[in-house]
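All the exercises in this workshop are built on plain-text protein records. The record below serves as our worked example for the rest of this section.
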Amino acid sequence: MSKNIKAPRPVRAKPARAQKRVGPLPSRDEVLAYIGGETAPDGAKPPARVTKREVARAFGVQSANKSELKILLKDLEADGAIKRGRKTLHRQGRLPALTLADILERDRNGELIAKPVEWDGEGEAPRILVRRSRDKRSGGLAPGLGARVLLRVDFDADASGKEPAYSGRVVKIVDKAKARVLGVYRALESCGRALPVDKKGAGREIFIPAGMSGDAADGDLVALETLREGRFGLPTARVVERLGSLKSEKAISLIAIATHGIPNAFSTAALAEADAARPAGMAHREDWRALPLVTIDPPDAKDHDDAVHAARDA
């Protein structure tokens, strides 16, 4: 009696794994480049939190050379080239790959701009262009102005002029944007007060603790973010944006926008269309520019657009 004998399955070759670099101790420049966000010689991209172990793994440092790598990292730290956190490393004067930041403004293209919560470098804190998240599961995290977010940032060495030196994708929204209140700032000796401009809050002052007034001066129109509002005492807030003198035309417009809920943030497509607009031509128009006109707007008008012209009727 014959039996069905199964043919042996063909043995598939396993795909070759990427060869890890095994070599001598990396140079100072290689370590600095890797900690600053550049890829290692083996193509490995640095993680969000770079540690001594990650550096050793990326450059294939053997156990016998790990003590020398430790000395190299200590020398870089002593020279001020890198800074050590609790366990992580990042380049001095550069933002770490994972940065906590506040979204504070929009640029002329309508893109969100953030600034790091902590900055120990020289000069003003760098600006970060917030890119849309690629995470399909979340549908793309969409923070708003005033939100605090965790960003995975990349340094742009070619950025020039007023362009942000960093760009970043939102990893997590730590704190959603809170409603902003417009008020007139009054400077005191050790703190400040603000009087809301809307009718609902008129007459009720807001307390601004010391160190939370930004660069606001007495009499400025400011945007406030409420910190605490209890049953007793004044509500507490911090200044998130200085909008300028209350006497300026911009301040009057911003008060009207806040009072009536007029949208003042537009999509990138709308801003691009506005930038592409050109002055109206004279086609199909009558040219009256030579007529002697007398304006009838009052002296304090913001735009003189009412005028008359008188001539003898022939």
